[in-house]
Amino acid sequence: METVELPVHLDDPKYFLVFTIEDAMLFIGAMGLGVLLHALGYLMLIGFGVSYLSSRFRGAVPEGRLQHILYWHGVPIGSGHSLINPYARRFIG
Questions:
Q1: What angle (nearest 5°) sits at the alpha carbon of residue 70, between those of residues 47 and 89?
Q2: When you count CB atoms within 10 A of the terminal residue's CB, does the N or C end of the chain come out lower?
Q3: Integer Cα distance of 63 and 41 in angstroms
Q4: In whole angstroms, what is the distance from residue 42 CA to residue 83 CA?
Q5: What CA dihedral angle connects 23, 26, 30 and 31, to 10 degrees?
Q6: Radius of gyration of the chain (CA)
Q7: 10 Å Cβ neighbour count for 53?
Q8: CA angle at 78 for the pair 31 and 9, rounded to the nearest 5°
Q9: Which residue has the higher pLDDT, 62 or 22?
Q10: Percentage helix, strand, coil, to 5, in the chain?
Q11: pLDDT in tens, 24-61
C-alpha cells in the first residue's frame, strides 16, 4: 500500500481515511442512494466506478475543468468572484 501524504497547506486535497474527500463523497452518496432504493450492491459498484473514473479524470485535466463545463451548460456550481454573471454586459470597477 502506498503512503498517503498528509495535507499541509489549505490548497491540499482533504482526505477521509485514505481517499480524497471527493472520491469518498461520490461513493458514500451512491451508497446512501442504494440504501434508499434497496439496491445497495449495485449502487456501491456504480459509486466505486464513478469514484475511480473521477479520480482518473481529475488527474488528466486542469483544475476547474468540470466546473467550467457545468457552468457553460447552465449548472451554477459555487459562488464567488471567479463565477461572474454571464448575462452582465458591462463591468464597473
A1: 165
A2: C
A3: 32
A4: 36
A5: 50
A6: 17
A7: 11
A8: 85
A9: 22
A10: 50, 5, 45
A11: 888 999 999 999 999 999 999 999 999 988 888 777 77
